[in-house]
């Protein structure tokens, strides 16, 4: 048994000073004062914040893109996650055209079999539609991959009529999907134009050919398709104020739209792409791209106001050498960056410590809401008797500086290199076991598969 004494337990509805007792894998008691049972280990949490283990509902480990594969697989990626306080991840299984959904999911189970250091689950990506795939939606739910992902851009994209069919089928099954919203036609035309002259070799062409308008238009279209299907939907990685306006419009129509954003869109901006040094600028290439400072402020405010429900990483890491695949053609730069081990610390430092959001809101965005939306609540996402003892002890007084030198991810750069963070993740427990401490993994490969239930729709 482990007794967490004298800490501040954080809940979306309000924090409280209390002791927490874990026995085996579960939280068994929470009370103002608990007398330590005999032989019990004591963790002194005086002056510390005690959060439920954080959930990252958007990762890409061992993903093949742009002729290469992400440098982090499930093994290194989940180590990075748990080092930073994340105890559950949900990656994206993908059924590529020609594959059944079951085959796609089998492949992702295989990828995860290298050993995971936090608990893991899968969304399932749908890239084409036919009667068999429609029938297999229920198989995915039965196998615990209970939520889905679709794309409006890339070669995994599906067209509007297919999106409508998918949404109607997911509604029948009581579940929903996330969507990567960007207008592919608009982006393709701009990319062709930029690739026809000297702009082909510039990293800045990446963001100039994926404007906020392309994202906002797709969000609006996706929401209208959801309106017709009468289906709640999720917009993943929202980046901009213009896209937020489309979500507000859908909500005014009475729709349920759940919104995710990521730390990179909150603390980095598109000026990073203007660096003339390719190796510097290319590390920030991701899609949708980084936006303006005004967008960052709009997103922080939307988080504080409850307009954004979750913050995930979209961790998709490539080394500088891999990014060089696009040295002469910006269209070939593999898109994505690491973020697994810094997400909770960055949201605490830039959000809570700077007064943009409360610690209670942070708990909602990184733990409770993803647990509810992705069918893990109340097993995960909350400090409650009977819940898994996934526990993160955060020291608000500590300071740390982000650097690749201490990074657990295999990526050879840290996007936030040199950033000073107020507050630090100390001990991290996965189902009652100490798995990480002060940014280092102390016990590996303790993660288990999360068979998830159906989403909760609360908006
Ligand atoms: Zn993604």
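-> sequence recovered:
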């Amino acid at each position: 048994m482990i007794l967490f004494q004298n800490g501040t337990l954080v809940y979306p509805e309000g924090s409280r000073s209390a002791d927490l007792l874990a026995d085996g894998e579960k939280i068994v008691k929470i009370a103002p004062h608990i007398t330590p049972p005999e032989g019990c280990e004591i963790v002194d949490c005086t002056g510390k914040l005690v959060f439920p283990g954080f959930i990252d509902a958007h990762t890409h480990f061992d993903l093949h893109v742009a002729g290469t594969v992400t440098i982090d697989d499930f093994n290194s990626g989940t180590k990075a996650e748990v080092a930073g306080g994340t105890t559950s991840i949900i990656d994206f299984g993908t059924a590529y055209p020609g594959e059944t959904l079951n085959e796609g999911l089998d492949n992702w189970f295989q990828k995860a079999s290298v050993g995971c250091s936090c608990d893991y689950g899968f969304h399932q990506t749908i890239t084409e539609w036919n009667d068999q795939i429609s029938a297999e939606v229920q198989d995915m739910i039965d196998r615990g991959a209970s939520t889905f992902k679709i794309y409006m851009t890339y070669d995994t994209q599906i067209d509007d009529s297919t999106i409508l069919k998918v949404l109607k089928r997911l509604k029948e099954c009581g579940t929903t999907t996330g969507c990567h919203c960007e207008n592919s036609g608009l982006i393709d035309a701009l990319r062709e134009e930029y690739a026809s002259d000297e702009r082909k070799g510039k990293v800045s062409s990446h963001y100039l050919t994926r404007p906020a308008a392309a994202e906002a238009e797709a969000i609006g279209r996706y929401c209208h398709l959801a309106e017709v299907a009468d289906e709640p939907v999720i917009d993943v990685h929202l980046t901009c104020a213009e896209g937020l306006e489309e979500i507000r419009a859908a909500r005014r129509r009475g729709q349920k739209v759940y919104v995710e954003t990521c730390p990179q869109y909150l603390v980095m901006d598109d000026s990073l792409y203007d660096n003339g040094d390719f190796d510097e600028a290319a590390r920030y290439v991701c899609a949708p791209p980084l936006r303006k400072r005004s967008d960052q402020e709009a997103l922080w405010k939307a988080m504080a106001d409850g307009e954004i429900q979750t913050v995930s990483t979209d961790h998709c890491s490539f080394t500088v050498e891999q990014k060089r695949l696009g040295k002469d053609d910006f269209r070939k730069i593999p898109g994505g960056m690491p973020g697994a081990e810094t997400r909770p610390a960055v949201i605490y430092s830039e959000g809570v410590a700077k007064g943009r959001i409360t610690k209670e809101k942070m708990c909602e965005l990184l733990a409770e809401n993803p647990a509810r939306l992705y069918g893990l609540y109340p097993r995960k996402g909350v400090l409650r008797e009977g819940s898994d003892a996934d526990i993160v002890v955060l020291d608000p007084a500590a300071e740390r500086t982000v650097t690749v030198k201490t990074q657990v991810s295999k990526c050879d750069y840290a996007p936030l290199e040199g950033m000073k963070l107020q507050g630090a993740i100390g001990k991290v427990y996965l189902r009652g076991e100490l798995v990480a401490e002060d940014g280092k993994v102390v016990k590996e490969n303790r993660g288990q598969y999360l068979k998830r239930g159906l989403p909760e729709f609360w908006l």
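The two ends are 38 Å apart (CA to CA).
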